[in-house]
Specification:
This protein is mainly beta. It has a domain of 270 residues: YVTN repeat-like/Quinoprotein amine dehydrogenase (Methylamine Dehydrogenase, Chain H, 7 Propeller), CATH 2.130.10. The protein is built from one helix and 51 strands. A four-stranded antiparallel sheet has the order 1-51-50-49, with no helix packed on it. Strand 42 and strand 43 form a beta hairpin. The longest helix has 6 residues. The chain is globular.
């Protein structure tokens, strides 16, 4: 992807550095005659563009069917009528069912029915002998579509705090079971015939806390067995769900994970986005691998930063793919996923010519050495090497810096349903977290960090918002100064009254500059926290992680519609250049220019 020539002061489109699609789910399904001989993969790019792949394992033939509208499908299921159903999000509130009929491939994907005008996402679909069910956000509903009559029913809300219904299964007993979260977790049994529902959790289970095993985050541990029985794990072990009741079962008596077999009895094993999948003979333990290929669309960029050697690094969102751009050659390279998670890379930092990477979920930490071949793993010598989750209070690692003694400081938003993020200190030499501070600012997430060698202080900025489904208890975000020697906060201030978040921090010219959610840049005294000045950016709202000091003595930042400059002497904020295409992420400020993302494209503003 060669960059076109440019003159100073011009924007240059550097192309789409990532072409990839996420496998949202894959399954065995019917062919045109109703025989179970095909593989279907529901694919999504940029978190909004979906298409369905139909693969014939016998011949390798692949057909592709585009979703013509909507914001993508997070799940699909084979209906009792032999059609492939997709739960599609609209461009605003509203969700719908679309379907593909293998007997009428010329019709491609077709709209079936609008399910709700209040929900924004259908997380999971389930099917029984007559209906399709979908679990939703933000009201944690179960929506039912009767295939025979076309009727739509709305079940729920099931709890006072529930925002997610995920996962969801239809059992062979005629009941539907859904995990509801996330501020408080519950397991709901729903009788779709009568509409009656109730929780299956006991008072003892509730008192014991989460119904997730240690190390599991967010969604319930739940599955449908081969015989149609639904099982779930609570804090006292495994349970069989049958006719609306929860029955404790020993670990060695839970059923085999349900898989729709093909005509020859094999089931689908793994389906990888990189172009291969496996078919498994469960009884014989035999696995065969198959290749497939498709043209992936450009993936929406989530973050852009400068890395080792002055190269530009960044990543896409759903799927998580890291890329590298060489300003000298104008070429971009798609590297792969440097983590074991599939969300997004939230923060990067360079130390000793290695790139440290923190990603969602679990605030997963990895390190990549660009001078060595790509051989991802968790063992010593792997590259990138995965160090795994950072621990309590970490889910979305929105800030990472190199602090005193070349230790990494990482600030995070907590897991779903939780308030009070954390600041971890990671020692690269030892390869481990040496300290972790949960609720450093009670009830608030850590969304910005900076280190000032002059004062020796680490500065943090917060957000009152916690993990998805949580309700803020704080009223305004703060900036704090933390002393690594005493391990205490030495001052704390709310830079703007009732502002909900601090989006970035940057020391310059003996002052601390902060962007605050909305359109504000604040200037503080690093020693005392006194707010010295407040300015407004020239257009739009400030972006997350998009304020950076440059070698020319000024700071540069991004809004959704422009690049702006902050004079570190006078604090004056001026517009550098407007950008009509919409700036969606950033920021890397180099001697060549300012790099940022706009949708699926990487851009640079040449000085």
């Amino acid at each position: 992807m060669a960059a076109t020539s440019a003159h100073a002061g011009e924007f240059v489109d550097l192309g789409e550095p990532v072409h990839y699609a996420q496998v949202m789910n894959a399954m065995v399904g019917p062919d045109a005659d109703g025989h179970m001989t095909r593989i279907y993969a529901n694919m999504m790019a940029s978190g909004e563009l979906s298409f369905l792949l139909q693969i014939d394992p016998a011949t390798g033939e692949i057909s592709r069917f585009e979703l013509p509208e909507g914001k993508g499908a997070w799940n699909s299921a084979v209906g009792p009528d032999g059609r492939i159903y997709l739960g599609v999000a609209g461009s605003g509130p509203g969700v719908a069912l679309w379907a593909f009929d293998p007997a009428r491939p010329e019709e491609s994907l077709r709209h079936v029915v609008d399910l709700s005008d209040t929900e924004t996402v259908i997380w999971r679909l389930a099917a029984d002998h007559h209906a399709i069910y979908g679990g939703t956000y933000p009201n944690a509903l179960v929506l039912e579509y009767d295939i025979d009559t076309g009727a739509v029913k709305r079940h729920g809300p099931f709890t006072e705090t529930g925002t997610y219904a995920r996962p969801i299964f239809a059992g062979a007993d005629g009941w539907v079971y859904a995990a509801i979260g996330t501020a408080e977790w519950d397991m709901i049994a729903l009788d779709p015939v009568t509409g009656e529902f109730h929780s299956v959790r006991t008072d003892e289970q509730r008192r014991a806390g989460s119904m997730l095993p240690q190390g599991w985050t967010a969604w319930g541990r739940m599955y449908r067995a081969q015989d149609g029985t639904v099982y779930y794990w609570d804090n006292d072990g495994w349970h069989r769900l049958w006719e609306g009741e929860s029955i404790a079962v020993p670990d060695d008596q839970i059923g085999r994970w349900g898989k729709q077999p093909m005509e020859d009895g094999r089931v689908l094993g793994v389906f990888e986005p990189g172009g291969r999948y496996s078919l498994v003979n469960r009884d014989a333990g035999q696995i065969t691998w198959h290749d497939y290929a498709y043209d992936a669309p450009g993936s929406r960029l989530f973050m852009v930063d400068e890395g080792p050697g002055g190269l530009i690094y960044g990543s896409s969102i759903i799927p998580l793919v890291m890329f590298r751009h060489d300003p000298a050659t104008g070429e971009s390279e798609q590297l792969g996923n440097p983590t074991t998670v599939g969300g997004e890379i939230y923060s990067m930092v360079t130390l000793d010519e290695r790139l440290w990477i923190a990603a969602y979920p679990d605030s997963h930490l990895s390190v990549y050495d660009p001078s060595l071949p790509w051989e991802f793993g968790a063992e010593a010598g792997s590259n990138p090497r995965a160090f795994g989750p950072l621990g309590d209070g970490h889910c979305r690692p929105q800030a990472m810096i190199v602090g005193p003694d070349e230790l990494l400081y990482i600030g995070s938003v907590p897991d779903y349903g939780q308030l009070g993020g954390a600041m971890a200190i990671f020692d690269p030499a030892r390869g481990e977290v040496v300290a972790n501070y949960r609720n450093l600012v009670p009830g608030q997430s850590i969304t910005a960090l900076a280190y000032d060698p002059r004062t020796g202080l680490v500065f943090g900025g917060t957000s009152i918002t916690g993990g998805g489904g949580s309700t803020p208890t704080a009223t305004e975000a703060v900036i704090y100064a933390w002393d690594p020697a005493t391990r205490e906060i030495v001052w704390q201030v709310a830079p703007i009254e009732n502002s909900s978040a601090v989006t970035d921090l940057a020391p310059a010219n003996g002052k601390l500059f902060a962007t605050v959610k909305g359109n504000s840049v604040c200037v503080l005294d690093p020693a005392t926290g006194e707010v010295l000045d407040r300015r407004r950016v020239p257009g739009g709202w400030v972006h997350w992680a998009a304020l950076e000091a440059h070698s020319d003595g000024a700071l540069y930042g991004l809004t959704g519609s422009c690049i702006y400059r902050v004079d570190a002497e006078t604090n004056e904020v001026t517009e550098v250049a407007p950008f009509e295409g919409g700036i969606t992420c950033g920021l890397a400020v180099t001697d060549e220019g300012i790099y940022f993302g706009s949708g699926t494209h990487l851009w640079v503003y040449r000085w």
